[in-house]
């Protein structure tokens, strides 16, 4: 039975067999076909990437009693992905358990689709649905099946809550048979009083209304009801049977409330300093979402995204430092550095291990054994680095740093006692740029940053030292951050055009920098007494990375020329004359 052939209702309560028989009428005989149970898990990653793309991934594990041909594949675990951009669904059966990463699945369309969405993120069960099914057949006097109905009782529980409160609901699904469509529609109409959202007008007069109506009228009424209740069609004020959305709502899970809106909603005339602190607070709240995954070492993205959000805050405060009092700026920068420092070692080791397959493919076979011995050493270092990070996150000092940062991100310190343990309290009582309109300061900063990118870009030649190329990369990164942070204050066309151009330029400059960083980090891993094979492998890999760095360097000039040709027309600032076009 395909989803397109099935309609369903939400019921107020689970009806017993006598109630069903009474509603169906004396001309219909109700027989039991089967009973079974299954458990479903809704899977997504910490950042709800599947949900954001309109996709639903469900892992279904049948109970041991599953023996019906209708359930078929449900004997063993299976994953089903459906939603936006997918015709029907993508399915993978015969799984021993829910996948943690996309590469836990066998090769196929489902694995390929998830790989493109999830990347290095791990999947986690978001909620659990335990289901009890009863399959019943509605037969005529001759014993022919006119319609199958499936009664489903669900127990839903969020796996994000320690207490796991359970929510109960009952569904009724209709499985019509080919050739008996009109009979099925009539029987659905008779069962209409069971619906949770049925109106009094729809119920009034039953069964009198049925007796007065002609067979053709009853069939037409039932057909209209079937169209109205098709999955995916929402009637105003009615419940939708979009399962995953229903499940999330019932369990009180709201992904949109956990994620930052993109872009952040900002007002052109709001006080710049207050806006910057509010934005930094939002990024800090996002960073803290990843702490549990860092402790559990679930996947490398928890640490990576934690650091990304800390870097966003540091970049935001650095780019807009004129909006805050000097003491407050110094306090925040110091606290953020204290929070980021203990995470650096583990992230560096993660990056090296994530590249190990690519490195092994680059090296000749004679060097691979030596590199494998280095990887074993790096994995041992990583375990120790993670243990150190766990101790840091669980320690009192980390808790005090967090409290101090949250207090410092307030427009007015909650109390000087919260800050004095780390830095001197604020002395300035009024800082004029703090109160100036946000858009005015943002556009001025953005204009200066764009001019600096063009100016530094014009100086780049084939003979320019690597350090100057790195500085250009930093300036591009600043401009990219400004466009990301303040996109809601800019025309969409400008943001999209600039981000497209900057993405290509940053990609080339980023590769150039990454190759240099990777060379230095690999050489740092070599101990003075390292085996000869290990030294040969590392030096060989460094030589190959150096060649790739040179190739990236050769692409910089053309990328700079392409970017400089793009217009950069900023809007008119709040209560200010418009900016002039930046000259390349």
Automatic annotation (TrEMBL):
Matches recorded under Gene3D superfamilies: CHAD domain (1.40.20.10)
Q: Where is the composition biased (Basic and acidic residues)?
A: 215-230
What range(s) does the CHAD domain occupy? 266-570
- The transmembrane segments are none
Q: Which PROSITE patterns match?
A: CHAD
SMART domains in the cross-refs: CHAD
Q: Where is this region: Disordered?
A: 207-239
Q: Which domain of life is it from?
A: Bacteria
Q: What is this protein called?
A: CHAD domain-containing protein
What species is this protein from? Marinospirillum alkaliphilum DSM 21637
